[in-house]
Predict the structure of D-glycerate dehydrogenase.
Amino acid sequence: MSKRWNVYVTRMLPQPAIDLLKEYCDVEINPDDQVLSHEELLTKVKGRDAVLCLLTDTIDDEVFAAAGSQCKLFANYAVGFNNVDVEAATKRGVMISNTPDVLTDATADLAWTLLFSVARRVVESDKYLRDGKFQGWGPMLLLGRDITGKTLGVIGTGRIGGNFAKKAKGFEMKILYNDVTPNPQFEAETGGVYVDKETLLKTADFISVHVPLLPSTRHLISTNEFKLMKPTAILINTSRGPVVDEKALVYALQTNEIWGAGLDVFENEPAVEPRLLECENAVLLPHVASATIDTRTNMGLIAVRNILAAMQGAVPPTLVNIEVLRAKESNKA
Ligand SMILES: NC(=O)c1ccc[n+]([C@@H]2O[C@H](COP(=O)([O-])OP(=O)(O)OC[C@H]3O[C@@H](n4cnc5c(N)ncnc54)[C@H](O)[C@@H]3O)[C@@H](O)[C@H]2O)c1
């Protein structure tokens, strides 16, 4: 039997995940339902064997140094890991894991929720009614845009982009996609057609972004991209905020360069560009794409299983930096 690990959890998670972790490890959890300051994080990670962290924690080399050389794994409670300096972790021999797959459906579903909400002006209509403005059915009241039979543009066709596109079948949509290379599996599953980014932006009625945040995807959608879009286009972003240039988006929304936008993520969360809040043609959600009870529980269970695997000397099932193990192997040889 392996020795019980000492694990720090940076914020309370669904109970089944905590229960599983406590069965095998000594666990301390941040008791406050808020993000730790960097200083608090540096203190709390000290001496741990593993840390279960969140996308709101900045995990940089200073954190790895503070944790100490005995620390073997940071299990990130998200599929995206742009909050973690993976290169620094690998240099120090620290494993990083994430939580792919279990949040794919929930995130794709929320992208559809946003698409419908913007196209059919759901939030505006609800507010209109609650404000007591509803005087009866009107031929010109709150007209939106059709969805069935329209063209969907998907940028990034990995797990979530692929799942999102498959769900378009019932709406008989034509699918265009862009990725770093053509994706035959995506084409087979969705009937999607590979086009360059410019063609996609010019042609699609709905553009949904599903890329990771990388240096190459920061402001992937900015002033020039909005200029290419149709005035009737709707942009959906459930990936990461900095993928869309928020100031350029505000300009496009205010000048009706595009019809609307649905956003789950923002450039400087939790801050939101103030002028965006004034845009009635935008639906804005507080980063809740994976926020279902089942999904958040499963994300917790995956994060914990990564910790337990590492504790037993096995390869964590969703290890991000496999190079760390190769480096250890070559050091042994
Ligand atoms: N809003 C949320 O709560 C939430 C939830 C889950 C995931 N996400 C975000 O969604 C992202 C995607 O998740 P996934 O599981 O589908 O990842 P994935 O790795 O399976 O897919 C990403 C796809 O983007 C493509 N890509 C990379 N750079 C590109 C570029 N420059 N242009 C076009 N395509 C590019 C990749 O080739 C890949 O096909 C995550 O990295 C995460 O940041 C957000």
About this structure: The chain has two domains: 6-101+293-332, 104-284.
